[in-house]
Design goal:
By secondary structure, the protein is of the alpha+beta class. The chain has eight helices and eight strands; from the N terminus they run E-E-H-E-H-H-E-E-H-E-H-E-E-H-H-H. The strands form three sheets. A three-stranded antiparallel β-sheet has the order 3-5-4, covered by helices on one side. It has a three-stranded antiparallel β-sheet with strand order 6-8-7. Strand 4 and strand 5 form a beta hairpin. It is elongated.
Length: about 210
């Protein structure tokens, strides 16, 4: 009879670090195939998970990397999040089971992100109205709802961040304000729109 020792490359708490085979050469080869099949689920693999934008990457990383560390601790899966100037996403590394757990955790967190972050498309005339007097109207909504509101002038988008209930309240107030605006389409590029509106919407007020 022959004897062969097979080192196990992937350490795992439920599997010994080595296995000694005794028997004929054919029996040993057959046993090795069985062992390889048993170890396949524990092999280290990498998988890339796409994210919609950098804001979701920042949310999953968390303040000071707190959420990223939580991901590693809960799923035993290593993660490498994309940089700001790269394609948004995260690379996961671990066994298949750990990666599936990590993806489930990411899906759960992104659902929470959608509840705590709302983006509203703005009509063009909303900018001077919302930003007039140093954004007094936006500041009032923020104070009353305990949310944080940012406006992207180039994309004509308003983003509300906060707790789920507060975000809903702020969105309701903002949409009520926007409903009172009569919208028109201005054939202006984003580069000349600011000059057309004037400082603090002065030109719009004159119209």
């Amino acid at each position: 009879k022959t004897c062969q020792t097979r080192p196990l490359q992937q350490p795992h708490a439920r599997i010994a670090q080595c296995k000694t085979q005794h028997g004929s050469a054919d029996d040993i080869q057959q046993s090795l195939h069985v062992i390889d099949a048993m170890l396949a689920p524990f092999a280290t693999v990498r998988e890339w998970v796409d994210l919609t934008d950098s804001s979701r990457v920042s949310f999953l990383v968390g303040e000071g990397g707190a959420k990223a560390r939580q991901l590693v601790q809960r799923t035993h899966c290593h993660c490498a999040f994309s940089k700001l100037d790269a394609k948004p996403g995260v690379e996961l590394e671990g066994c298949l089971e750990d990666i599936e757990h990590a993806k489930a955790w990411i899906t759960e967190q992104l659902a929470l992100f959608d509840k705590q972050n709302v983006t509203i498309q703005l009509p063009e005339l909303a900018l001077p109205i919302l930003l007039n007097n140093r954004g007094q109207q936006i500041q009032q909504i923020q104070r009353s709802t305990h949310t944080h509101i940012t406006i992207n002038k180039s994309l004509l988008q308003c983003t509300i961040r906060g707790k789920e209930g507060d975000v809903k309240s702020a969105e309701s107030q903002l949409r009520e304000t926007l409903a009172s605006i009569t919208t028109v389409s201005l054939p202006l590029s984003k580069y000349v729109r600011g000059a057309f509106f004037g400082a603090k919407g002065q030109h719009i007020e004159e119209i």
